[in-house]
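for the writeup, i need someone to sanity check this before i put it in the appendix. the sequnce is what the collaborator sent (i think, or maybe the updated version? ugh). structure was predicted straight from it, no edits. if anything looks off just tell me and ill rerun, i have time this weekend
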Amino acid sequence: MKKTVFMLCGILIIAGLAWGQTGVKKKRALPHEFGNVLINNHSDKAGIAPVQFEHWLHRSMFTCRLCHVDLAFAMKGGGSNIKAADNKKGFYCGSCHNGKTTVNGKQVFASCQLPFPQEWSRNCERCHSVGRQVKFEYDFYAYTAKYPKERFGNGINWEKAASDGVIKLTDAIEGISIKRAPMKVQKDFTLTAKVAGMADIIFSHEKHTIWSGCEGCHPEIFVGIKKGMTKYSMAEIYEGKYCGVCHINVAFPLLDCQRCHTKPV
């Protein structure tokens, strides 16, 4: 009973912080929408529909580190300023979407092949889909039907899916990724909660290393590599800083308090 009351108080506190940051209550994204990113740096100007990037599909195949370090995608939608010419040259999306790469035994379609014949226009809609009635190749609910479930975000426990072998993550692309020795995983450590009665956080380096590597977090998000060196607050996390860079729109959301605050009081 005490645990239930404590968790309810924690959720109310965090929800209050979130409300205070925006002034309005945001609509919670549906499972198939959570993590998706709108990319519209140049699409409207070019007279084509903006891109709806589906994070859930790509994260079922690749690590975060591969895309956001090796392929240099920004951690914010539109931050990379991707152009069709970039993709055609083999950068960004074009690193895989080149008509030659094979993933899970299937050839990945080529992106932004300019100039393109009229019959290729339907291929463009596989990415430039906002506002169009596009039938996608992969349906979220059918695709993830056997994945381990959780309460928030996509409704998928991606961490468990990887550890159980339900998904196989690619962490390098031949000719692009630098060959590196396996990283030594640091031990888990405790972060003390600042709210009385709130369980402390157990931060797992191992779980984050699998997905993001060291480079995904250090030094751009967390400057220091020593515990306590970087100072931050829950309010800043809700502003999309520090842990909030991922744990608002892509990784499991901040509403899932028990996923972080796990050490009994």
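The chain has two domains: 2-27+181-263, 37-143. Confidence is low (pLDDT under 50) at residues 17-23.
thx in advance!!
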